[in-house]
Amino acid sequence: MAVEQGDRYSSIEAPLLNDEKVNDGNTTTTTKDQQHLTVHHVANASSFKTCFHLLNAISGVGIVSIPYALASGGWVSIFLLFTIALACCYTGTLVKKCMDMDPNIRTFPDIGQHAFGSKGRLIVSIIMNSELYLAVTGFLILEGDNLNKLIPNVEIHIGELSIGGTTMFTMVTCLVILPTVLFEDMSLLSYVSAGGALASSIFIVSLLWNGAIDGTGFHGKGRVFNWSGVPSAVSLYAFCYSAHPVLPTLYNSMRNKTHFSGVLIVSFSACTFGYAAAAILGYLMFGQEVESQVTLNLQTGKLSSRVAIYTTLVNPIAKYALMLTPVINAIKMKVSCNKRVTHMIISTSLLVSSLIIAVTIPLFGYLMSLVGALLSVSASILVPSICYLKISGDYKRFGSGMIINYSIIVMGVAIAVFGTYRSLIDIIQNL
């Protein structure tokens, strides 16, 4: 999302538009395909609605890999989940403080520009769009793996070429998603995908039902601590909290902005306890045998297993186009063309390229670990902390604020370096 029209109405912001009263100014038609609108937003969202939107932004597919993250680091690493959650909640308040210092900051890249000029905007935009692109690539891998779990041993034959398993289902998922990425109006999908928190709740209940009632049991002992697995664990934990790019929109949409810090605390606390519950349940059920997606451990003959898998499958299909739209808009602005055919070419090309990556690197856990370490940490921890220090000038003043922010930056850099290295090694070794 950048400062211009294409970013202001990106998919990340689409569900929030009804929370703002929009008054159109004069409309000047420059060409048949372009219109420049002057819009004025009046914040009208209640604290409850803002909390609802943030819960859905934080709740995502990371919940299916959270038991694997706990298995990687051992039981003690659950405290690292709470540490990262606390750090991300704190950096969320830094986003608010940056916006309070300059009311012209409307989007996440605006913070980078205010701190470091056009280079800062470019870096933040690259981080944000790369994270979105690789996250939706993970959606394709997840869909392929879980569909293959539900319907195993299926192949199609094209001449002498045989395609089956996860590769075939990943390609089928792309065909299903294709019409959604061709739409320029994401308003319908924004409401379909707004059930992230509900989907996570259903998933946790299904997991509990599967272990307690459907006979799987809670017999996995697991390890107390595994130092070598900590980089992978914290990287996957960080991936679960990659909602910071939406915070400026949420803050601007609020009627009473003084309640925003409370909204952050409630939302991050609720999602963290949900993630912790899923992690503990999955690890107790399957121990060290837990897969990178805990749904792959579930027996499909049981109703609770099917509910968990179906819930996992539905949300990514709706969210794919929504999350890819900011990337599409950024490219469209670079090529300075807003025509319908340009949108179709760019969106289709991105979908096909993400399919190629998903088929080439069908390693959901390792790829999401890479995204978490390299991009989620950058967007949710490093960017807010570094930009706040620069904008506020706290980097010049020794005090508690300076110590806390530099401590968070050191933690973020450590996760980025060691987590990225570990993820790349794992990907290379398993290709």
UniProtKB/TrEMBL annotation:
The keyword Transport applies. This is Amino acid transporter transmembrane domain-containing protein. The lineage of its organism: Eukaryota, Viridiplantae, Streptophyta, Embryophyta, Tracheophyta. It comes from Pisum sativum (Garden pea). It is found in: Membrane. PANTHER family: AMINO ACID TRANSPORTER, AMINO ACID TRANSPORTER AVT1I-LIKE. Signal peptide: none annotated. One of its GO terms (cellular component) is vacuolar membrane. It is a multi-pass membrane protein. GO terms for molecular function: L-amino acid transmembrane transporter activity. Residues 44-423 form the Amino acid transporter transmembrane domain. The chain crosses the membrane at residues 51-70, 76-95, 122-141, 161-181, 188-209, 229-251, 263-287, 307-331, 343-364, 370-391, 403-421.
